[in-house]
């Protein structure tokens, strides 16, 4: 067996003992709302007290979900690793409607190809994704995210887990302070 020539940097920030995992679909408006709170969560909780892990939760009703998840993972293999992936996620969040279909089944993106989606991401981010997107066995990492979500019974995005336990009462609409209290128990 040969060692892969690439490495997907884990989408993990902070070094604390409490593990806060968020299962996100990149174009889901609720996942975007959650994603936009993670820097504040780390700041309020303290990077030495909490570790935030993003788990990508591709969902077929978000029609370009698979392409965008692959783009994020591809970005994590590039220089900057997880920070490059985070930059791609931020671009998707900022321009969410340009990567989604109207009512999940129509609109201008009906005529857009995966290559055009990648080019759009490259244009907004300045990150060259095409070569990394084409890594032949990149799906190994994508499948890991999918299997991990399935083994934990994750169906919707965002879903949150603290120390391996799903938190059904947590929402992207919660104030960050509520997340901190829930995660740290204070």
From TrEMBL:
InterPro entries in UniProt: Thioredoxin-like_fold, Thioredoxin-like_sf
Residues annotated as domain Thioredoxin-like fold: 18-179
SUPFAM superfamilies assigned: Thioredoxin-like
PANTHER family per the UniProt record, alphabetical: ACR183CP, OS09G0542200 PROTEIN
Domain of life (superkingdom): Bacteria
UniProt name for this protein: Thioredoxin domain-containing protein
Xref: Pfam families: Thioredoxin_4 (PF13462)
